[in-house]
């Protein structure tokens, strides 16, 4: 499991599913971040998630520890920043990709566990529970 500290406006959610053991990266802005007009530094493309360090000027070549953009590969990378974006991933899609097999296994009598890991306010509860039903 990865442990990142990308700053308070960075949103990462990692889900570790047992026994499937998928590694997942998940991205969304909070309302506070939206108010502060925070810039997105995370990009999802397929199974890859890239993070850009804006403090490192574009085009500057430094040592490998100081790359402007770092890319990580997961089993799934989900972008939930903008529901109008073509790459937007809904709760339903996350559930279909990650939850269905676990639920099926549970109904078949196997032990199953969905585990959410991430920094505070990164969306663990939201991803697991959704929004409260009125
Ligand atoms: N995919 C998403 N789409 C829209 N809003 C989201 C999403 N994920 C999280 N949020 C919102 O971001 C806020 C923080 O999410 P949440 O409470 O789930 O984080 P958490 O990781 O469980 O936090 P903590 O570790 O503090 O318990 C909530 O207001 C939630 O509604």
Automatic annotation (TrEMBL):
Pfam families cross-referenced by the UniProt entry: Kinesin (PF00225)
Kinesin motor domain sequence ranges: 19-134
Family annotation (InterPro entries): Kinesin_motor_dom, Kinesin_motor_dom_sf, P-loop_NTPase
Keywords of the record: ATP-binding, Motor protein, Nucleotide-binding
Ligand binding (ATP): 118-125
Similarity field: Belongs to the TRAFAC class myosin-kinesin ATPase superfamily. Kinesin family.
Protein name: Kinesin-like protein kif16b
Originating species: Ilyodon furcidens (goldbreast splitfin)
Name of encoding gene: KIF16B_2
């Amino acid at each position: 499991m990865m442990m990142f500290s990308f700053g308070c406006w960075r949103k990462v959610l990692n889900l570790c599913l047992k026994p499937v053991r998928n590694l997942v990266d998940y991205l969304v802005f909070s309302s506070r971040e939206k108010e502060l007009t925070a810039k997105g530094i995370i990009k999802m493309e397929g199974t890859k998630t890239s993070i850009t360090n804006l403090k490192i000027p574009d085009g500057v070549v430094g040592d490998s520890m100081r790359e402007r953009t770092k890319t990580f590969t997961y089993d799934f990378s989900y972008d939930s920043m903008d529901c109008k974006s073509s790459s937007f991933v809904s709760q339903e899609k996350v559930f279909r990709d990650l939850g269905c097999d676990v639920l099926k296994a549970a109904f078949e009598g196997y032990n199953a566990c969905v585990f959410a890991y991430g920094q505070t306010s990164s969306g663990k509860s939201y991803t697991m529970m959704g929004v409260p039903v009125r």
